[in-house]
Amino acid sequence: MFDLELIKKVYEELPERVEIAKKKLNRPLTYAEKILYAHLFEPKAIEVFERGKAYVDFAPDRVAMQDATAQMALLQFMNSGKKTTAVPSTVHCDHLIQAQVDGKTDLGVAQTANKEVYDFLESVSNKYGIGFLKPGAGIIHQVVLENYAFPGGMMIGTDSHTVNAGGLGMVAIGVGGADAVDVMAGMAWELKMPKLIGVKLTGKLSGWSASKDVILKVAGILTVKGGTGAIIEYFGEGAKSISATGKGTICNMGAEVGATTSIFAYDNSMERYLKATGREEVAKYANTVKDYLDADPEVYENPDLYYDQVIEIDLSKLEPHINGPFTPDRATPISMIGKVAKENGWPIDISVGLIGSCTNSSYEDISRAASIAQQAVEKNLKTVSEFTITPGSEQVRYTIERDGFISIFEKMGGKVFANACGPCIGQWSREGAEKGEKNTIVHSFNRNFSKRADGNPNTHAFVTSPELVTALAIAGRLDFNPLTDSLTNKNGEQIKLTPPVGEELPSKGFAVEDAGYQAPAADGSRVQVSVAPDSGRLQLLYPFEPWNGRNITGAKLLIKALGKCTTDHISMAGPWLRYRGHLDNISNNMLIGAINAFNNETNNVKNQISGEYDAVPTVQRKYKEAGIPTVVVGDQNYGEGSSREHAAMEPRHLGVMAVIVKSFARIHETNLKKQGMLGLTFVNENDYDLIQENDTFNFIDLVEFAPGKTLNVQVVHADGTKDKIELNHTYNEQQIEWFRAGSALNLIKRENN
Ligand code: MIC
Ligand code: SF4
């Protein structure tokens, strides 16, 4: 399944490219820097790229896409005029499977319900030389880790958790579909040279503490925006003691602090994992360039000199953590959670414990969780909460079934869902969720934004390690601390759970019958891709209008969003995932989760033409009909979370011209640029407070739009008073071209014709 020739080529070129970079920068390099400089699109055009400032053209080695974002990515790629993808690429069917009954049943239902979309993805993959992983094969990031990731490589993926592959020493970055199109079309992929955050791990994990706790702790320190624009590099003795899949977990959740990606240097744990997953050859080649797959020793001797920020964590002292509710950076050590929950009025009773997902479903995770489940079975404990398992891949599922773990979970009352995203992305048909009852769930996934798992805004979701999820589900209480507390079993005896034990890798090796991979046709030129014109789920894309070259004037405020506005708020997932390939239909969810700052309600904004209140998409469609441009205003870290470019394409399609916020999350800001929108930030954050409900916006100097130069907007209030607001932007020359052309894709098309 993997591309050994490509990997060999990367390793052949690596030493020379790194040496040239070292000379150029005239200093030792960190590991991430080595990979970045070895992947310049124009290796000869090497210069010292200033971190956090310079835009750099890169040449990633591969692309991965998941079904919910691949539809838009491939609809765009089809418009690029290319015959095959320029780099190895894969499509993974994982997001559209709903968890309801059990893995087998749910997979069958999904195959019928999503047939049109799967057929589309399969035929596009076949046509353009893209590897296709069928529904049931597993979750993109687990499948990538098992098959495609390799130390020293660089990849992008249309999903924010692409960063998971940092666990195998890869620079892996989540992007929107339009970025994937660049790479698949053989063009340069642009990224601002990231800053570097070093995390030094000392000591060793033990007892109940797991790799998950490292990132839960880091999330508490950095918060959801603390990693923005940076690569987090982990190092130190502690790093070496963590398994490759444990490293994957840590890197995966780097997305939750906004980091561009996270990475560990190549070490024995990675070598073991490569060998266990049938990639002895990759390990062999990696070993020949080992020194280049690590930072230079001087970096570790004096990390402060080489990283923009350094954090130190002693794994020996790290307590298990529980993060949440509603945000993944609210970190509480297990010893405190009972008290904190009580103070905040969080429901103590746990209704469901869920393990698995792309973040935490390695063999090690499952075996450790199973060791807890086993105790419940053997010691006659009743499991109080419901318990579910979503394996990350068919290979993991098959292997853990063979090794008896699934049967242990089942004896404890657990239910195994399909190898798919399921509850992690609102694809959970949870009985009773519509009642909106206040309740608590604990899971080993990565995100816990409001409504994410089951659509119920009153579900308090907490993120923790799989072993702790298992213990908490057995106890059924959030204030249960397995390190100190006992449970009463069915015979009335006091039982203390012993700490989890597991195996890093299966001693009998991994096994699988059908990994679900389908190779593309050798010559796809005759493959037909069809999209039914009356389809509700797929719609061919039309090119967005180029900019008319004039200042935007008379733009109305559509919504001023208050507080957290993630991509889940801008383009909700769950039931809306059905429309990911149909721009007009999915636009009906535009910003329906955002809170209107003027009435604190969701999906209820003023239509300035009629004076009436209505749903955001409805009001926006009215403005569009009337030919009136609009502006969206937002708070900090606007667009955090997912890579879904729908959050940018929907406003673009419905006629929003500019999104003006205090700050952006990286992927979303790029997605806006790619789709030809204006993504701008207040020079003075307090100007956010000046924006009123009936405001009209007049751009003053958009005609002079240029890199490094602020833009000015006159805001006219209902009473006739005016404010002048200065706005920052990060557009470079090329990105301004995208704006002028109407989108980046319009430009690609022009260049290919
Ligand atoms: C997520 O975890 O939010 C998702 C669903 O995987 C998204 C991608 C999407 O919205 O399709 C992501 O993280 O990028
Ligand atoms: Fe799927 Fe959840 Fe992982 Fe996103 S975070 S890829 S939804 S399992």
Describe this structure in words.
This protein has 753 residues and is an alpha/beta fold. Helix content is 32%, strand content 18%. α25 (733-741) crosses α26 (744-752). The protein is globular, with a radius of gyration of 25 Å. The site of iron/sulfur cluster has 13 residues, from α6.
Précis, in short:
With 753 residues, this protein is of the alpha/beta class. The protein has 26 helices and 30 strands. The chain starts with a helix and ends with a helix.
Secondary-structure blueprint:
Elements: H1 4-25, H2 31-38, E1 55-58, E2 62-66, H3 67-78, E3 89-92, H4 103-113, H5 115-128, E4 131-133, H6 140-147, E5 154-158, E6 171-174, H7 177-184, E7 189-192, E8 195-202, H8 211-222, E9 230-235, H9 237-240, H10 244-252, E10 261-264, H11 268-276, H12 280-288, H13 297-301, H14 303-306, E11 309-314, E12 321-323, E13 331-333, H15 334-344, E14 350-356, H16 363-378, E15 386-390, H17 394-402, H18 405-411, E16 415-416, E17 439-443, E18 459-463, H19 466-475, E19 487-488, E20 494-495, E21 517-518, E22 555-560, H20 567-570, H21 583-586, E23 605-606, E24 613-614, H22 616-625, E25 630-634, H23 646-654, E26 656-661, H24 666-674, E27 678-682, E28 696-699, E29 711-716, E30 722-728, H25 733-741, H26 744-752
Helix pairs in contact: 1-2, 1-12, 3-5, 3-7, 8-10, 11-12, 16-18, 16-19, 25-26
Alpha-methylisocitric acid binds near residues 160, 642 and 644.
